[in-house]
Amino acid sequence: MTNLNQLLESNRRWAKETYAADPDFFEKSNLMQTPKYLWIGCSDSRVPATQVTGLKPGEIFEHRNVANLVVHSDLNCLSVIQYAIDVLQVEHILVVGHYGCGGVCAALEGSAHGLVDNWLRHIQDVIGHHEAWMSNQMDFNTRWKALCEFNVIEQVRNIARTTVVGHAWRRGQNLQVHGWIYGINDGIINDLNVTLDGRSNIESAISSSIEKSYSRHACIQPYARYDDWSNYYMSKPNLSQNRHIVCDIGARRHSLTQQNRSQSFLHATPAY
Ligand code: ZN
Where are the domains of the chain? Predict the structure, then answer.
């Protein structure tokens, strides 16, 4: 069993070190919080907001749940957003997903974990929005990684559609909504380029970000089918050498390797 005294001792040590570095820190914290950021992230213990952004207590207002969802009927999340915008006057709402998200994986697998399955239905709705693209990806990890991004992008749209954000933008409040994704394997946060403000065309920003995500993760365009390799070759004149792709030829899906840019043949292996 974990010795909880370790946590308390560690806390005392942290408080002492923090005071030594900045004797006014706790007095300032005691007066008020003035964060500029609202972080909406996953409950995953590997993604601590202040630590991965190098900020201090008091600088990020946080809401976390399984798979960083913003659900229109979730009064908990909506109340956090409302308080952050109306009272704290945050300037940035950051939806931060992460690769390797267990919630996204469970939704993708359709595996049963109890009550949480109902929560994860919202991610399965996201899968439904991208079904054509997803069904073209043979590799599970590719689908998982892409779905982690799609999920963030969809939550950015959900935030932009809340009445609270709509009212803030209509009265001219300085507020941006962003979609980010954190890599557990390297500690790097990447911007999914879906930043919205009061002047944004929400749907075109969402579509643009989704298209970038499609092309980052897929070897072929969604819905693409090719009758033979020469058609694919002609449609992609800039294919680099030794490019590996997966595509449909005739009625069957093939795993293809182009060995030489100047040659028009390839190795084609039926994938199933
Ligand atoms: Zn997660």
Answer: 32-217, 229-270
> How many Å lie between the centroid of ligand 1 and the Cα of residue 128?
19
Quote the pTM value.
0.80
Residue 227 designated active-site: no
pLDDT of residue 254: 52
Q: Is 77 a catalytic residue?
A: no
The Å distance, Cα 99 to ligand 1 centre, comes to 8
Our answer to whether residue 148 is catalytic in this structure is no
* Ligand 1 mean position, distance from CA 186 (Å): 16
Q: Which CATH number fits domain 32-217: 3.30.1380.10, 3.40.1050.10, 3.30.70.3400, 1.10.150.120?
A: 3.40.1050.10
Tens-place pLDDT, residues 112-142? 999 999 999 999 999 999 999 988 887 899 9
* pLDDT, tens only, 205-244: 999 999 999 998 875 443 344 444 444 544 444 444 444 5
- What is the band of 149 on the pLDDT scale with cuts at 50, 70, 90? very high
How does DSSP assign the chain, residue by residue? ---HHHHHHHHHHHHHHHHHH-TTHHHHHHH----SEEEEEE--TT--HHHHHT--TTSEEEEEETT----TT-HHHHHHHHIIIIIS--SEEEEEEETT-HHHHHHHHT---STHHHHHHHHHHHHHHTHHHHHT---HHHHHHHHHHHHHHHHHHHHHTSHHHHHHHHTT---EEEEEEE-TTT--EEE-S--B-TT--HHHHHHHHHHHHHHHH-SS-TT--BSSHHHHHHH-TTPPTT-EEEEEETTEEEEEE---TT-S--EEEE--
Q: Is 72 a known active-site residue?
A: no
22 as an active site residue: the answer is no
> One of 98, 130, 217, 254 is an active-site residue; which one?
98
